């Protein structure tokens, strides 16, 4: 009894009165098609109930009880998912793991600096400073033992680029500055009338030029008709660039007050206006993408710290030198430092060095030794972020805990997966239960027990269709996963040969080592390699930017002129707005609302299409503003969502809900899955086309009204892909995809591959970053990077058909195929 957890009658989301026994102290995999109910069982039912009972035992409320008859044999639970919550550009691997804090403490205690006057090296351990009072604060000063020069003593704050004491004043500690690319904005050889200013188009441009010329008259300057701007006088250029209220213009015309009205020439200046719009939109607008570019800070060269702080050394190394080296190299430095310190110095920093060493060894153990401390958290993949959080648990001495993880192998090469499995088995051997939501067959082979949920997605799922070890699952008739594994894998003989190629020349971005590589056009290409080998850098920071005006990190990309458009589908979240859902994102809700508005019952009530929208006032329930729930602030816990008492979760007013199409109200449609809507909207061609496309890419199980914030990375990515496919038309496109099979069951992957092949057969080119062997084998061409991650990667190890890769001795990918 005590060595199993028993779930009885789970009915959360799509679970159909599901009952299951889960053995404790084992490595368990919950698998099944996408949308079958795996996450609902593991996270929404098991994890929530563990949390709820644990909190209630301490006298706290805050988590609602999942819909389940009973769960017995529970343990305290820890869940690690893939969502990166911190989008701040200042958050790095160093700050996320707190290693940077310990490093700053080491530099405060042991950092050697030089005297600005006589260049004598000063060691803080051998020299005492003295405190002086200035106005209301106390500052500690050091005096050079050689020339008695006074300087402020450096503390841990001076080594933080997030504090004014430590940050480089030019870039405020960001390491890069943003500038406007002037040649893109001003075409020096043209006159104003011929289009010299790129952003002056149409009526807006005519208006701006008129104001500018009024300003020239106001300052008694020539009118500049037909004059190329390279021949403008200094005053004319100053007004055009910076505007009449700028310091530049005031300096040139000291006695003249700037014009007060637009008629008289109150011209704001092209660059001044662009900067204003840039700050108003936080740098995210079409104009910002077209004309602004960031470059390494000219003063600190990306080191982020001010001149004094960045020159301080410990054992010959500065902080900027340490944070750009891989964590593996950093571990060598920490060992060397520890061995070289005398007893008195070591006592000052013992706790900090031990902290750095412990954290480094955990992260290296989990296969992330190629990362650097200054790597921004927003640039990590979901799998990397999840594994960093997992590394914090490695030396945990807890036993009897239930660890729940959502696809920890996402973004991992099969070579790295083996290392991760070892880590998870170690957690289990300490006496814990490790439960993984997972589709990777390599992980299933190592699991002690598998629970297969299915048989389909959404309402077609929610039952246990198989359980046991992998060999047992293969023998079970009902098991969907067993069925896939029973199928004979056919070997491909024919590969598309391509028509010409796209070539990226001399790519050096991030860790790429002067890579020049060709991708065949009109083919399905997979870019593979171990984690951190440089795949995403090559495709998304090189190839994807081939048409940009400014090339950073590569010389050029040739062969892109054959495409009408480039479509990039990455892993970034679709929306952080709870109001965006499947139907609104894919533009399906508009035709459905119009359909409802045309019904006789709607006309009778004088209801228009806007009454059937939950985003605008009119037909929606105003108590919950059309969300169907209201939130209650729970102080220390996440906000609690409670069904709206007025509309009972039905989002709309009674008279709107009374209008029905094929027996369904507008809210019934939002609660239905894409699959179910196929039968509801049988005769509607436009709506059917979109629904069929969603089903083809394996999203038939999604509810029409499902909020985009609840989608997994892979689901969001496939939804983006569907949206782009709808816009395809007769254009020839280049698709760049980042692990499109994330979160897909092998059966759903087969469907996705059919769709990608259809795209290629229609004359398009698809290049995808991928680790899934099933997808790599289905590609026409493979580019394999490596050999390792980080500084040991960044080279092309092998290229060719999957058959050729399989025969290549140097390729890790080849070994796993």
Account of the protein in words:
- This protein is of the alpha/beta class and 817 residues long.
- 35% of the residues lie in helices and 17% in strands.
- It has 31 helices and 29 strands.
- Strands 5-15-16-3-17-18 form a 6-stranded mixed sheet, with helices on both faces. Strands 23-26-27-21-28-29 form a 6-stranded mixed sheet.
- β26 (733-738), α28 (746-761) and β27 form a beta-alpha-beta unit.
- α12 packs antiparallel against α13 (343-365) and α25 packs antiparallel against α26.
- The longest helix has 23 residues, at 343-365.
- 40% of the residues are buried.
- The model has no long low-confidence stretch (mean pLDDT 89).
Walk me through the topology.
Blueprint: E1 4-10, E2 18-23, E3 27-31, H1 38-57, E4 68-72, E5 77-80, H2 93-97, H3 99-110, E6 113-114, E7 121-122, E8 130-134, E9 137-143, E10 150-152, E11 176-180, H4 182-185, H5 202-218, H6 234-242, H7 247-252, H8 270-280, H9 286-291, E12 292-296, H10 307-311, E13 313-314, E14 317-318, H11 319-324, H12 327-340, H13 343-365, H14 382-391, E15 402-406, H15 414-429, E16 433-437, H16 441-446, E17 449-454, E18 463-468, H17 470-475, H18 480-486, E19 501-507, E20 515-520, E21 524-529, H19 535-540, E22 556-558, E23 565-569, H20 582-585, H21 589-597, H22 600-604, E24 629-632, E25 640-643, H23 654-657, H24 666-671, H25 674-680, H26 685-696, H27 713-727, E26 733-738, H28 746-761, E27 765-769, H29 773-778, E28 781-786, E29 795-800, H30 802-806, H31 812-816
Parallel strand pairs: 3-16, 3-17, 5-15, 15-16, 21-27, 21-28, 23-26, 26-27
Antiparallel strand pairs: 1-2, 1-4, 6-7, 8-9, 9-10, 11-12, 13-14, 17-18, 19-20, 19-22, 24-25, 28-29
Helix pairs in contact: 3-13, 12-13, 25-26
């Amino acid at each position: 009894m005590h060595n199993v957890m028993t779930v009885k009658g789970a009915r959360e989301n799509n679970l159909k009165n599901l009952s299951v026994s889960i053995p404790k102290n084992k490595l368990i995999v919950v698998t099944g098609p996408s949308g079958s109910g795996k996450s609902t069982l593991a996270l929404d039912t098991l994890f929530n109930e563990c949390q709820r009972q644990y909190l209630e035992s301490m006298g706290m409320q805050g988590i609602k009880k999942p819909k389940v008859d009973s769960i017995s044999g529970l343990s305290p639970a820890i869940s690690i998912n893939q969502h990166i919550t911190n989008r701040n550009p200042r958050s790095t691997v160093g700050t996320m793991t707190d290693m940077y804090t310990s490093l700053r403490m080491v530099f405060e205690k042991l950092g050697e600096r030089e005297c600005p006057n006589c260049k004598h090296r000063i060691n803080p351990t051998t020299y005492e400073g003295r405190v002086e009072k200035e106005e209301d604060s106390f500052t500690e000063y050091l005096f050079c033992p050689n020339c008695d020069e006074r300087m402020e003593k450096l503390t841990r704050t001076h080594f933080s680029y997030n504090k004014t004491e430590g940050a480089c004043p030019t870039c405020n500690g960001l390491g890069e500055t943003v500038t406007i690319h002037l040649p893109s904005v001003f075409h020096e050889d043209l006159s104003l009338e011929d289009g010299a200013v790129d952003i002056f188009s149409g009526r807006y441009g005519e208006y701006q030029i008129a104001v500018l010329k009024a300003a020239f008259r106001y300052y008694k300057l020539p009118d500049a008709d037909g004059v190329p701007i390279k021949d403008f006088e200094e005053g004319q250029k100053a007004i055009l660039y910076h505007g009449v209220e700028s310091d530049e213009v005031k300096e040139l015309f000291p006695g003249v007050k700037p014009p007060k009205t637009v008629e008289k020439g109150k011209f704001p200046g092209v660059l001044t206006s662009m900067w204003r719009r840039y700050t108003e939109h936080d740098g995210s607008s079409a104009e910002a993408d077209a004309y602004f570019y960031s470059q390494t800070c000219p003063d600190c060269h990306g080191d982020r710290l001010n001149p004094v702080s960045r020159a301080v050394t410990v054992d010959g190394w500065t902080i900027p030198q340490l944070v750009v080296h891989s964590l593996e190299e950093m571990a060598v430095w920490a060992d060397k430092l520890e061995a070289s310190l005398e007893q008195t110095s070591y006592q000052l920093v013992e706790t900090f060095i031990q902290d750095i060493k412990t954290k480094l060894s955990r992260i290296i153990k989990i296969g992330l030794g190629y990362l650097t401390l200054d790597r921004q958290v927003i640039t990590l993949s979901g799998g990397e972020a999840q594994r960093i959080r997992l590394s914090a648990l490695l030396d945990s001495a807890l036993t009897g805990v239930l660890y729940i993880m959502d696809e920890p192998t996402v973004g991992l090469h099969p070579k790295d997966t083996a290392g991760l499995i070892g880590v998870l088995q170690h957690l289990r051997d300490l006496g814990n239960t490790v439960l993984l939501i997972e589709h990777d067959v390599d992980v299933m082979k190592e699991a002690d027990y598998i629970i297969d949920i299915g048989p389909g997605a959404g309402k077609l799922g929610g039952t246990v269709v198989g359980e046991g070890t992998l060999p047992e699952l293969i023998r079970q008739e009902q098991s969907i996963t067993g069925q896939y594994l029973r199928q004979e894998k056919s070997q491909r003989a024919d590969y598309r040969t391509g028509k010409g190629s796209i070539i990226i020349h001399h790519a050096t971005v991030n860790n790429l080592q002067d890579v020049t590589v060709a991708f065949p056009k009109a083919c399905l290409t997979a870019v593979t390699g171990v984690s951190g080998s440089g795949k995403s850098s090559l495709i998304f920071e090189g190839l994807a930017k081939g048409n940009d005006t400014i090339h950073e990190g590569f010389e050029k990309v040739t062969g892109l002129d054959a495409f009408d458009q480039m479509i990039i589908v990455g892993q970034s979240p679709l929306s952080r707005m709870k109001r965006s859902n499947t139907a609104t994102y894919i533009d399906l809700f508009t035709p459905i609302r119009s359909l409802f508005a045309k019904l006789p019952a709607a006309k009778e009530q004088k209801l228009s299409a806007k009454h059937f929208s939950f985003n605008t006032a009119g037909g929606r329930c105003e108590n919950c503003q059309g969300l169907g729930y209201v939130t209650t602030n729970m102080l220390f816990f996440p906000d609690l969502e409670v069904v709206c008492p007025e509309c009972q979760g039905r989002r709309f007013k009674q008279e709107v809900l009374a209008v029905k199409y094929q027996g369904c109200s507008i809210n019934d449609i939002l609660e239905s899955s894409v699959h179910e809507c196929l039968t509801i909207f049988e005769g509607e061609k436009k709506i059917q086309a979109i629904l069929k496309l969603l089903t083809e890419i394996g999203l038939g199980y999604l509810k029409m009204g499902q909020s985009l914030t609840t989608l997994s990375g892979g689901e969001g990515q496939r939804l983006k892909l569907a949206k782009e496919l709808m816009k395809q038309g007769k254009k020839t496109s280049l698709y760049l995809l980042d692990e499109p099979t994330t979160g897909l069951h092998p059966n759903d992957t087969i469907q996705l591959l059919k769709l990608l092949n259809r795209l290629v057969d229609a004359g398009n080119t698809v290049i995808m970053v991928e680790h899934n062997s099933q997808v790599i084998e289905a590609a026409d061409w493979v580019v394999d990077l490596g050999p390792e991650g980080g500084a040991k990667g960044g080279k092309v190890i092998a290229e060719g058909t999957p058959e050729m890769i399989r025969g290549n001795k140097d390729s890790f990918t080849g070994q796993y195929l």
